[in-house]
Amino acid sequence: MSISFTIVDVFSKTQFKGNPLAIVDNTADSLSETQMKIISRQFNLSETTFFSPPTVPSATYRLRSFLPDGREVFGAGHNILGVWWWLATAGFLDLSKPNSADKSNGVEEFIFHQQLGDDVLPVKVMRIARDELSSGQTGSMDSPAEISISIRQISPDFYNFHPNPAELAQSFGLTAADIGLSHDVAQNNSSKPLRPQVVSTSTTRHLLVPISSVSALNRASVQRDKLLRQLSIVDNKAYGLYLFTPMPSSPDSRGKAIYQARFFSPGMSGEDPATGSAAGPLSAYLYRHGHLDITGSVGKLTIQQGISVGRECWIDVTLSVTTIGDSEVLNVDLSGGGVKVASGEIALPSIDLHF
């Protein structure tokens, strides 16, 4: 017996770029957790996501994502956004009645809900008229470019700063001078220095590390054992290392801040091409420390990732700031699309197999 799967490159409209994601159709709800882990190990991608009927009535689908090592993760990044892009383009969603429509911009919006662990979170599917798309945004014949997905991450949590940035820098081949933004960027944005800190907008915590230049970012060389030690020093629940640096603005950046980033985790076999569960926290981190401009209570950020592994990805992040009483509430939304690259059937692992 077998079960259907699809491979999607997420955060790109070009096949064989983006962050590859294996998506498995478990709508029959027939797979055990062990079978899901074995299938994820077989694909050996950064994550494999299974979609199935929800166990709570308010959700449209339940999504479960696994790493090749069998660990289940609950972050809302490429593993979630890519599934919803596929559900929308492959006919698994009812797109007959939009929740809202902006005729002037040719955009229809549909709201669905996803079950991720114990959380039920909204998902926005945007269908954009082709004549409203900018040049170069055409997809393949069977993966229309007019579908874009926006997912809401949970409110950000801020954790420890790394106690020894110099040691941290040395662990991946850089120096203390390479940690932090360049003097010019820091002066233009804020007098507050940026220090490596663990931040999360999911159940997954990442260590965010500002790097002084693109050149330094490209020189970084991460080794698993050294990374494990540095993560344990700052937070024993920290999962990954996210290195980032600002890029020059371009005429078509539409007021968004643009950063280039790289992500490493001991649970992954190599460098991750795109990491939504780190891009979301980055927006909140930059805002908290005075490095993200807010216009009308909204800040926008674009992250380029995957360059060093030949998989250029673009992630759009919107940070909304509201005040309730004396408290400030931050909402993080991640946006992007994808492109289908493969589909087929994978054999069902025997129920007698152990992971």
From TrEMBL:
GO terms for cellular component: cytoplasm. Pfam families: PhzC-PhzF. Coiled coil: none annotated. InterPro entries: Phenazine_PhzF-like. Gene3D superfamilies: Diaminopimelate Epimerase, Chain A, domain 1. It comes from the Eukaryota. One of its GO terms (molecular function) is isomerase activity. This is Phenazine biosynthesis protein. It comes from Oidiodendron maius (strain Zn).
